[in-house]
Amino acid sequence: MVFIRWATTGALQEEILYCSPLERIIRAADVLVNVENFYKKHELEWQNLSSVCTDGAPAMLGPRSGFANLIRDLNPEATSVHCIHDTLAIIADMFEKLNQLNLSLQGQHATILKLSDSINSFLQKIVLWKSNAEINVFAMFETLLSLGDGRSINSGIIEHLSRLREEFQYYFLDRNDMNLDVVRNPFHAKPETLQLELQDEFIDVINDSTFKTAFEKEDLETAWCNISLSYPRISKYVLKMLVAFSTTYLHGGKKLMP
Q1: Crossing angle, helix 196-206 and helix 209-217, to 10 degrees?
Q2: Which of 81, 95, 141, 205 is 20 to 30 Å from the Cα of 75, by its Cα?
Q3: Which of 107, 77, 117, 116 is CA-nearest to residue 5?
Q4: In terms of domains, do 231 and 250 share one?
Q5: Structure confidence by residue, pLDDT tens digits, 129-141
């Protein structure tokens, strides 16, 4: 099952693109053939794909391999996001905080901005928890404290936190390729951080008083969608990031993609 998000004037839209069974053992190549057949049938262009969000199935895993890697062969500019729910499933039994993070990223219109903020925050917390664990402070783990002081498994906790941080950095590596400050707060972003062909138009945007007023009053998705005709280059750049799914769990915890 494949869902799609795209930008229209004034809003982002989400719909099911198509659902099709896989008739053989699932490999990344099998999934790609299935999607390619749909693309060819409906004369869709791969260059219009800005981002793909995949789950934790073996054919899908990782931003550097599997289905996401094959997509990049067809469109090198497409970014990939690994569904946070499947990463969390590996270690949710030990940390209830992972479940809280997971739930906070579900729901419609969960954008890459929310993902980036939540992951950055969680990575900083892991560093703090590890530092506390190294001095036998475990106040952040209530269940652990209810069973003892945690000192007997201190080394295991520290090792687990280190591995957890490495896993998050691995799976969410692609988000560092995005200039998210331009999206969330363009009036404090520096034009020189953008590609040369975008800089002049970006300066026009941040000096547009009408856009500034709209940006302060409306949600950022609506504000950016509404200038897509007036400033096509920079709005296209921004909307490519806003239409990217951050998770395959969107509607009240219901999984939309197998």
Answers
A1: 80
A2: 205
A3: 107
A4: no
A5: 899 888 988 777 7
